[in-house]
Amino acid sequence: MTRNHRPQSTCTGPVTGPVRLINSASGTMATKISDSTKNVSVTAIINAHGSNGAAWEDHRLHYVVQQTPAWKVWAAHDGKLMGQGEFAELIEERMVDVVRPVAADMLELAQTFEATIGVKFESSKLLDSGQRQLEYREQVDARAGQAGRMEIPKDFDIAVAPFEGADPYRVTARLRYRINDGVLRLGYKLERPEDVVRSAFTDVVDIIRAAVEPTATVFLGSGS
Description:
Helices cover 28% and strands 38% of the residues. The protein is of the alpha+beta class.
């Protein structure tokens, strides 16, 4: 007789959850675990084929790896240009993630962006330090007012864990800007975020592997 019923369970949250469930099942039956970087999930096949021969493979546990709130924010704004106020608000909100330059310098930069909302940006030039100097002029009653300058870094570093249970990764964000008709828009581009996600996912799989082997076998595959 062939078993047609194949129950499936899905869990999220900390990686300790699926580890506990897998270990509770592995004491009496073989468990086969596969990972899918495409779907960012881990699948455990309970009662799997093992050293004792064929088995029913009649239950699957899907663990959907969760992105951290911090990574979601940085990834959502990656490559997008924003107004000065929106960019300053993002930096202030996620200041805790910035590791270079120091927090005080980034806060001062954010405050400068907020203080110069409404000025007319006229030009920019690259400094020997690698920073970019932006020149602007205040607008008073539709007339040109006092001139000013600000310096912005070419990049900054953040330390963020992409997934719950993974260690933080240091990622460089290259600062981008554009001046159109005197209006400044700002943004950043993360360096190789797909590599960071792939490595962080491997970290999660390694945590599961260390916690369940040798009673369960971990391998690369689709888990289907």
